[in-house]
Amino acid sequence: MGAATTRATRGRRGLPWLVVGLWVVLLAVAAPFAARLGDVQHDRATDYLPASADSTQVAELQDRLPGGETTELVLVYHRADGLTAADRATAAGQVAAVAHRHTLTGTPRGVPSADGTTLVYPVGSNEPGTDEKKRDAFVADVRRLAHGEGGLTVRAGGPAALATDASGVYASLGGPLLYTTVGVVAVLLVLIYRSPLLWLVPLTVAGLSDFLARAAAYGLNQAFGTTVSGQSAGIMTILVFGAGTDYALLLVARYREELRRHELPHDAMRAALRGCGPAVLASSGTVAAGLLCLLAADLNSSRGMGPLGTVGVLCALAAMLTLLPALLVLLGRRVFWPLVPAHGSTPVARRSLFAAMGSSAGRRPLTVLATGAALLGALALGTLSLPGTLKQLDTFVDRPDSVTAMETVAAAYPERSAQPIEVLTPAARADAALTAVRDTRGVADARRGRTGGGWTEITVTASAPPQSAAETATIEALRHRLPGSHVGGPSAQQLDLRDTDARDRTVVVPLVLLSVLLILAALLRSLVAPLVLVAAVVAVWGAALGLGGLVFGPLFGFHGTDPGLALLSFVFLVALGVDYGIFLMHRMREESLRGSEPAEAALTALRTTGGVIASAGLVLAATFAVLTNMGLVPLVELGFVIAAGVLLDTFLVRTYLVTSASVALGRRVWWPGRLSRAPSAAPRRVPEPVA
Predict the structure, then answer these.
(1) What is the separation, in whole angstroms, between the first and last Cα of the chain?
(2) Alpha helix locations (H) across 35-84?
(3) CB 77 within 8 A of CB 154
(4) CA–CA distance from 617 to each of 356, 581, 636 (Å)?
(5) DSSP alpha helices (H): ranges in 175-264?
(6) Is the backbone of residue 487 left (phi > 0), alpha (psi -120 to 50) or beta?
(7) Nearest CA to 594 among 605, 583, 584?
């Protein structure tokens, strides 16, 4: 018997080394694939457009026309007090230099403005094709060749210049976003753990799980053609660090607690995993299920974000439940220095902020619940102040040359749009289609373009400014008058994005709510508790959007709201916000099973998990707040709403509203489970508060 016990002990001690070894092998295998994720990351229009939209069909058909995709630029020459003859000669010479250096689709012809201040040269080339790096190099070279001096400004605008400037911002979602996220998480972990060593362990594990997630994302792309964009890859990294660190905080807190009860670290870790493992698994399950609901979206960018986000969360889960425990066991108690939890010791008794919060919620639960609900409702009224739909030229935080160029064109040519409308019509009906286009109200000009593969291209210039109500009416009229044809271009793309986002909300939101409710019901053995948690996170989502409405225009100076903000913020806030509810409710259920009365169980759960939830909420909010430092308005808006929602959820909803609702409902919170019918006969034990 003694020999068997010794072998079992040796086996337990050898298991952490085996786990670490398996991770070394796994990361070595994943390394070549993780390094290639950037090769399959694309930020072309078709990577964001709705899969079935008219504008998407136009973009795909244009790729198959002779010469392939056309890279379109607009060179804008401008002098505020009027162009001189020398300016026009300079413009003609520079455009000729561009034509000499690159193969263009036609001879560029200058279009002077009526007030004589501006001269525009449309420039197109098939050289770059669909290669984004070649497109960016082409735009950069044209900008180098076309430059102003002596008061003459020269800027490159048009779809290609806008796309190139956007790709520069997406490039910052790689290294800079990762470094910023790591730095923010590191600072918070140092403050939370107050240890010179402990913070390195979960941070290192999170970094390795991000590396593994990148390899898995590349595998998804190769196996299933999953769209990988700069936005989805960046958010995947944030999810890995945010959710992974949350799981680490919960595990480490429970491990510290168990180290006081168990002499050997591996016994303490086994008890910690038994205690918090179900909550962590359910937490990651809700996030994964919520994100996978995005597969039902028609928007390519949203549909691609679902699998990538899920991969990130699952890789973080695997690392935090295997590699992190192994490293902590191998490092032993000394990893907590200088606050080492000695076996048999008790935490230092001190006044707990969350005990005080719980006491106030427990004394007057209905008053606290009503006050909190009123506050969230008041904040939600801010959604009425959200600015209108974000226009393409307003998507940059710092206005690049391409935006300034298009604004100059819009001011100098008020009689015509600065962006073309592209029509793809069957070649057999091209002449009739061209006549119908020219007869459409709101069309200033229309000319026939390339023909190939049974389709003919017609480039249309509207008389109204881009993305105005009048131009939108023109696009809709063209679609109505040209059955069997496709109408696209930048403004049509934005229109399709708005309409598809509205459709996706009606499909994805119910799926997210249903999937989260099912997981919570299975974990908590209750229907009432899941409904309380879901109602809470939905209220948080509304309040966070309302906060956005109060600050986006007046404080940030944004001129619109991204159409996808409501859907993406809902998915993330519901899936991630339920995490903290799971941590709290799962501990509450544990205490109820041990025989605690409902009110006592709720307050004990808050006292023992409140600090962990607060720390996790701060980390998660901080990681998403990193997005507010990016250069694109949609990312800033998304980061702000999610960060604000997580903070509201952490410090108001979990600490006050869920606790007060649980106290007010009593045993009914566990209906129809057995805890709702009779007290448990299990012996009662009040757990020690986490230091």
Answers:
(1) 39
(2) 54-64
(3) yes
(4) 19, 12, 19
(5) 175-193, 200-224, 230-259
(6) beta
(7) 605
Give Cα 334 to chain centroid, integer Å: 37
**Peptide linkage before 672 cis (omega within 30 of 0):** yes
The owner of tokens 């749009």 is 417
Residue pointed to by tokens 């136009």: 58
Distance, in Å, from the CA atom of 271 to the CA atom of 257, rounded to the nearest integer, reads 10
For residue 226, what are its two tokens?
């999953």
Task: Inform me whether the pLDDT recorded for 276 exceeds 90.
Answer: no
- In eight-state DSSP terms, residue 422 is E
Nearest to 326 by CA among 24, 18, 10, 6: 18
- The half-sphere exposure of 585 on its side-chain side, counting CA atoms within 13 A, is 32
In this structure, the strands spanning 421-426 and 486-488 are antiparallel
- Strand order from edge to edge, sheet including 71-78: 111-112, 118-125, 71-78, 153-157
Question: Per residue in 537-586, pLDDT tens?
Answer: 999 999 999 999 999 988 998 988 988 899 999 999 988 888 777 878 87
Q: Which residues contact 270 (CB under 8 A, 6 or more apart)?
A: none
Contact in structure between 421 and 449 (CB atoms under 8 Å): no
Answer yes or no: are the C-beta atoms of 77 and 118 closer than 8 Å: yes
Dihedral angle of Cα 536, 541, 547, 548, to the nearest 10 degrees: 170
Question: Of all helices (H) and strands (E), which one includes residue 614?
Answer: helix 598-625
Cα–Cα distance, 239 to 245 (Å, whole number): 9
Rounded mean pLDDT of 502-531? 89
Buried b (16+ CB within 10 A) or exposed e, 9-38: eeeeeeebeebeeebeebbeebeebbeebe
Q: For residue 360, how many C-alpha atoms fall within 13 Å in the half-sphere facing its CB?
A: 14
Cα 433 to the chain's mean position, in Å? Answer: 41
| CA nearest to 316, candidates 548, 39, 46, 623 | 623
CB atoms within 10 A of CB 295: 16
The beta strand positions in 428-562, using DSSP E, are: 443-452, 455-462, 486-488
Chain segment 349-395, per-residue pLDDT in tens? 555 555 565 566 667 788 888 888 999 999 999 999 998 888 888 88
Burial of 638 per CB tally in 10 Å (0-12, 13-18, 19+): buried
Q: Among 374, 433, 402, which Cα is nearest to 160's?
A: 402
Give the pair of three-digit tokens for residue 286: 């809700």
Residues comprising the chain, all counted: 691
| Distance, CA of 621 to CA of 640 (rounded, Å) | 9
Q: In this structure, are residues 621 and 650 in contact, taking their beta carbons and an 8 Å threshold?
A: yes
Contact yes or no for 526/670 (Cβ under 8 A): yes
Structure tokens at 667: 């045993």
Question: CA 623 to CA 182: how far, in whole Å?
Answer: 9
Alpha-carbon distance of 409 to 431, in angstroms, equals 30
